[in-house]
Design goal:
The protein has 204 residues and is an alpha+beta fold. Helices cover 44% and strands 11% of the residues. The longest helix has 43 residues.
């Protein structure tokens, strides 16, 4: 899959740059909100300020993604995570497996964690989509804990069965590093935002 692999890496690099632009815009909006909070506190007089949440902000890696050497790519592919492609039972709109339940889901939907990368799986076969997902999970985990996957609603599939949507969500539910997912846009079931297990220093 050398050509597909290189295309995937280029695509992920482009999307990472888009995510970086979105992050900068979000930080600018956050600074404006913080300025408004300061003004409000001055207007109402002496108040006890809220404690800093000390939310973790992962360092951003802006370096371009380099394709693996062929022998490394072959070894990596042996470790790829796959699920079977059979079955059409549609998975739930939200999912969490780390004991936090609705807390993680609400945080995903509210943007608590910055989205460090996103990927669009339109046009991929089921096997190709799983290859891309494996690379995307690794790419996202090296930069943070939250990413967004666009898989489509599946209304154009044969028999109106959401094949890719079902596959992606089943894959996420089974993957050991995925803690939760949720639909981030109300009324749009064509995408999911994911929360990943934070990697240790030895895994990074």
């Amino acid at each position: 899959m050398s050509s597909d692999f290189e295309h995937t890496l280029k695509m992920l690099g482009k999307q990472a740059r888009q995510a970086e632009k979105a992050r900068i815009e979000a930080e600018a909006a956050q600074r404006r909100r913080e300025a408004e909070i300061v003004d409000f506190a001055a207007a109402v007089g002496e108040v006890v300020p809220l404690k800093n949440t000390q939310r973790y902000a992962p360092p951003r890696d802006a370096s371009p993604i380099k394709p693996r050497a062929k022998n490394e790519a072959a070894r990596a592919e042996e470790d790829y995570f796959y699920v079977g492609t059979g079955g059409f039972d549609e998975p739930p709109a939200t999912f969490s497996k780390n004991g936090q339940g609705q807390n993680d889901i609400r945080r995903l939907q509210s943007g608590h964690w910055p989205v460090v990368a996103d990927v669009d799986l339109h046009g991929y076969t089921q096997e190709e989509a799983q290859q891309v997902l494996n690379e995307f999970i690794d790419f996202t985990a090296r930069r943070g804990v939250c990413g967004e996957i666009v898989h489509g609603s599946g209304l154009g599939s044969s028999g109106y069965k959401p094949v890719l949507k079902t596959l992606v969500r089943r894959w996420l539910m089974a993957h050991p590093d995925v803690l939760a997912y949720a639909e981030p846009h109300p009324g749009n079931d064509g995408a999911v935002r994911i929360l990943l297990r934070r990697r240790t220093a030895s895994e990074a």
